[in-house]
Amino acid sequence: GTSPFESKAPMTVPAGTSAMVSILDSSTDGEVVYLYDAESARGNKTYAFRSVRLLNPTGSTLETGPVTVYGEGRFIGEGFTDPIPGKSTSFVPFALDRQIVVEEKEETSDGIARILTAQRGVFSTEMRHTKKKKLVIQNRLGEEAVVYVRHTVEKGYKLAKTPGESERLGEAHLFRVKVPARGKLEVAIEEETPVFKTVDLRSKEGLDLIRAFVSSAALEGDVKKRVEAVVAMQRDLGTLEERIDTARQQMEEYRARMHELHAQVVTLKAVKTGGTLMRSLEKKLEEVSDKLSKATVDLVGLEEQRMISRIKLQDGIAELSFENK
Questions:
Q1: What is the DSSP letter of 56?
Q2: Quick check: helix, strand or coil at residue 325?
Q3: Cα separation of 150 and 271, whole Å?
């Protein structure tokens, strides 16, 4: 039940006490890198830590404890390591030198992955909810820097896009990237989860989602043609709405100009020498009046087209029902 060892240095155990000491003297693989860890309590959201990445050369776990780091014959920092399982790698952050600066942004998006059914233009869909993390990593050093980015996937999600090669540290992923000297590198990490949602083609949001899904070539055959036809009708109706809004704005400008010219003509009638200018203003007033009349006729025509388009769209949506097999 005992294990002898030989040590070149003495160890003092005070009277009435005991000591249990594990000693390992071995070479192992390692390198000095940077670790960006915005998740753990000892991490930092702005700067990456200068760290030692090392391999546990034994088959036993190296327990949690402080680590002193020496380099080129001198002390360069201290760190604290988590338990390192046998034959696995770990990171020991030992200095925050502020040479690697990280700017982090997050955004989310939704897209249709699959249409399950459609009833009168209301789609039952399987959505793909995506969370995207963008990191802009700036290297202030005069040499290339190896940076590991720590990222833990939220429960219920799965990785959809990664910056490149990775390794695991517990539940976290560590992505290895190289940032050029005095340069920047943008990396993106995406994770997604399925969400079941009802989408109404009559709403702008629903139309945008269906249009994006149709353009992605995810639909085929007769179903795709029917959906494309309804989307096209909705798009044409939207174009008409924009033209009507533009026409109404133009008519308001014509009315404002007519009011301005009319006031100027009334003012000039009291001036005996303003005959020439008044005739010019009256001619402009007539021209603007003609433009307003024409714009009014055009607006009526556009509104009739809109009414017809709405009826066609409503009929098309009412007929748009299917089950995705």
A1: -
A2: coil
A3: 82
